[in-house]
């Protein structure tokens, strides 16, 4: 069974600064592997709240070098490698994350890169083997960090698409076809488009073409969170005919014969 746990569902500058919701990214587990997608501010705290052990993480996947996607990466690398005692763990990231690009990044110091067993700087189309059975594929975007990538995770119970920050463009949906589950960073609601980000209308076009079994919106900005995220998700579902939900902090999705959704409760205070 494949499991996704949302360690945060907010995104964008002000939702992050004011922690309207958490911003810890997404934790993905499957048989024999544990992955952390875009570990933004508070990722480590949220892991401890849910009883997740950072030393058990096998790989970090970071889509780009904006703070709401990467700021806890170095401390999580310290955990993965037990402070550098164990040379293990994998980092997969965009060019800006690994080496910096123009005036952006890098997100991770050379010291921390050196603690890891593997580091992969990826561009759209690159495919990286994870463990014995799994694969991460980088997908295209159009974002203010021009090296940004999304990811398709080929897991035991089907393919999971992670559509990171991006504008909608021709070819985006095609890159995510074949996914059973699509997790979409959608920072803006209806009639509120801004450059380099997806709004509700964009996600309708994306989902119509990609046709996942389930679409999930996350990484929501202040305008969505001050309103009703479920309204946006329901509008997408009505327009596309594809079941769509708005993620909640600590929500888990289980992929097996069926797709099941549960809300986790913190097991302890940070």
Structural overview:
This protein is of the alpha/beta class. It has a single domain, classed as Metallo-beta-lactamase, Chain A. The protein has ten helices and 15 strands. The strands form two sheets. It has an eight-stranded mixed β-sheet. Strand 11, helix 8 and strand 12 form a beta-alpha-beta unit. Helix 8 runs parallel beside helix 10. The longest helix is centred in the C-terminal third of the chain and has 12 residues, at 229-240. The two termini are 28 Å apart.
Radius of gyration: 17 Å
Intertermini distance? 28 Å
CATH topology title: Metallo-beta-lactamase, Chain A
Sheet/helix structural class: alpha/beta
Give the SSE map.
Elements: E1 2-8, H1 13-17, E2 23-30, E3 33-37, H2 43-49, E4 59-62, H3 67-70, H4 73-80, E5 90-93, H5 95-98, H6 110-115, E6 118-121, E7 127-130, E8 134-139, E9 150-155, E10 158-163, H7 172-175, E11 181-185, H8 200-210, E12 214-218, H9 222-225, H10 229-240, E13 244-246, E14 251-255, E15 259-263
Parallel strand pairs: 3-4, 4-5, 5-6, 10-11, 11-12, 12-13
Antiparallel strand pairs: 1-2, 1-14, 2-3, 7-8, 8-9, 9-10, 14-15
Which characteristics define this entry?
alpha/beta, 270 residues, seven-stranded mixed β-sheet, Metallo-beta-lactamase, Chain A, single chain, eight-stranded mixed β-sheet
Task: Give a concise summary.
This protein has 270 residues and is an alpha/beta fold. It has helices at residues 13-17, 43-49, 67-70, 73-80, 95-98, 110-115, 172-175, 200-210, 222-225, 229-240; strands at 2-8, 23-30, 33-37, 59-62, 90-93, 118-121, 127-130, 134-139, 150-155, 158-163, 181-185, 214-218, 244-246, 251-255, 259-263.
